[in-house]
Design brief:
- It is a single chain.
- By secondary structure, this protein is an alpha+beta fold.
- It has a domain at 233-423: Amidase signature (AS) enzymes, CATH 3.90.1300.
- Helix content is 37%, strand content 17%.
- It is built from twelve helices and 17 strands.
- The chain has helices at 2-16, 24-41, 82-89, 132-139, 156-162, 196-206, 251-266, 281-304, 310-320, 324-345, 384-390, 421-435; strands at residues 19-22, 51-55, 93-98, 110-111, 115-116, 118-119, 122-126, 145-150, 165-168, 188-193, 237-241, 270-273, 350-354, 370-371, 374-375, 396-403, 409-415.
- The longest helix has 24 residues, at 281-304.
- The protein is globular, with a radius of gyration of 20 Å.
């Protein structure tokens, strides 16, 4: 299996540029050891023998981890990130690292170390980001599973752009270690794959508490494992928010999403068109993101500002301008948003909305400057369809929903109540059956 995936990487990666550090010999050695283990004692775990690629933000012991930055171009960690440890403990084989924008900042994957990642559906357009290398590797068949991380949409946006499945779990469901912000509940790590079943399988290996991560959810991971139990469509009631409370959405994305929802309704799903309560969500996210960027990257900015891309500099500077009351008000409003969203979702099985406000755009464009004629003033504003959900702490999944007239993938975002990932996966499995998939 490893040899087959290495052949596929050799065939398509020079065009797509999704896997930026390949450890083929190491992977083959691990494969031989796992085959030997299988011959003597049976499977090594639920991911036995599956090649997995890790996002280049996540540390891998003995394997270069650049974070997409020239400052770390030659950095080789001496520890594995927790998701790497757990994947390996479940029998997975590390085959390489996937591309990410500099420090994971932005939903278009390019950096000065490795260049741009291209979309397998059309190499002239973006694979999304910041887990763009992971999504492109999956869509191109280079790996069956890949991990990613998500602050403002980095698991969901590239899944939508590439036509795969990306799950942003509830904060603490997949603990992140090592971390500079042990109490952080904005950024999460999570699974990506081509199908809902595969995402559930990977989640069952990655989830579970860790004593070093105080925000860990104290629940065992086994309930996420397949087989899933897709509910009867006729038993489901969803809220459909076409613009997620008034955001500009490109007409081709809006059309593809609505067509998918109409197919769900035709299959028996009860659909109510309404908007969730998300007042102040943009300010909350942008304040807390800026605070987080300055906290983590501020020392690099102080030492080597000119080595950071302009958008990262800007985001850190936004954090420098904040004061304690800015952050305090954002946290109070975030608490209110959590309660209001929970109350809203108590009346539905799921919220359905767009993943990204635009379809995949040309790789030469750093970020969309407008959406349906509405100017985008910053590099993160066009992803509010994801970041608004981030601040609610609800789990959310990007599920393939259709294609643009040009054949580019469009995803659908499903959201359920806090800590209900199993329910979200079950519902997603039903929708996958209706909408079609790989």
């Amino acid at each position: 299996m490893v040899e087959a995936h290495l052949r596929r990487i050799e065939e398509v990666n020079p065009t797509i540029n999704a896997i930026v550090t390949l450890v083929g010999e190491k992977a083959l050695a691990e494969a031989a050891a796992i085959d030997e283990h299988f011959a003597s004692t049976g499977p090594s775990g639920p991911l036995h023998g599956l090649p997995v690629a890790h996002k280049d933000l996540i540390p891998t012991a003995g394997i270069r981890t650049t974070q997409g930055s020239p400052l770390f171009a030659d950095d080789v960690p001496d520890v594995d990130g927790l998701v790497v440890t757990r994947a390996r403990a479940a029998g997975a084989i590390t085959i390489g690292k996937t591309n990410t924008p500099e420090f994971g900042a932005g939903s278009h994957t390019f950096n000065p170390v490795f260049g741009v990642t291209r979309n397998p559906a059309d190499p002239s357009v973006s694979a999304g980001g910041s887990s763009g290398g992971a999504a492109a590797a999956l869509a191109a068949g280079m790996v069956p599973l890949a991990d990613g991380s998500d602050l403002g949409g980095s698991l969901r946006n590239p899944a939508s752009f590439c036509g795969v499945v990306g799950l942003r779990p509830s904060p603490g469901r997949v603990p992140a270690w090592p971390t500079k912000l042990a109490w952080d509940s904005m950024g999460v790590e999570g699974p990506m794959a081509r199908t809902v079943d595969d995402v559930a399988l990977f989640l069952s290996a990655l989830a579970g508490p860790d004593a070093r991560v105080p925000v860990s959810i104290l629940q065992a991971p086994e309930p996420f494992a397949p087989p899933l139990r897709p509910p009867d469509p006729a038993t489901l009631r969803i809220a459909f928010s076409p613009t997620l409370s008034g955001l500009p959405v490109d007409s081709v994305v809006a059309s593809a999403t609505r067509a998918a929802v109409e197919r769900l309704a035709a299959a028996g799903v009860e659909v109510t068109e309404c908007d969730p309560p998300l007042s102040d969500a943009d300010r909350v996210f942008e304040v807390l993101r800026a605070w987080r960027m300055e906290a983590v990257l501020g020392p690099l900015y102080d030492r080597s500002k000119e080595s950071l891309k302009e958008t990262v500099q800007w985001n850190i500077e936004e954090g420098i301008l904040l004061n304690g009351s800015d952050v305090g008000r954002a946290e109070i409003d975030r608490s209110r948003l959590f309660a209001e969203m929970d109350a809203f979702l108590s009346g539905f099985d799921a919220l359905v909305t767009v993943v990204s406000q635009v379809p995949p755009f040309p790789v030469e464009v750093e970020y969309p400057l407008d959406v349906e004629g509405v100017p985008m003033m910053t590099y993160i504003e066009w992803m509010r369809s994801c970041s608004r959900i981030t601040v609610t702490s609800c789990p959310a999944i990007s599920l393939p929903a259709g294609r643009t007239p040009d054949g580019l993938p469009v995803g659908m975002q499903l959201v359920t109540r806090y800590m209900t990932e199993r329910r979200l996966l079950d519902i997603s499995s039903t929708f996958e059956e209706i909408l079609g998939t790989w």
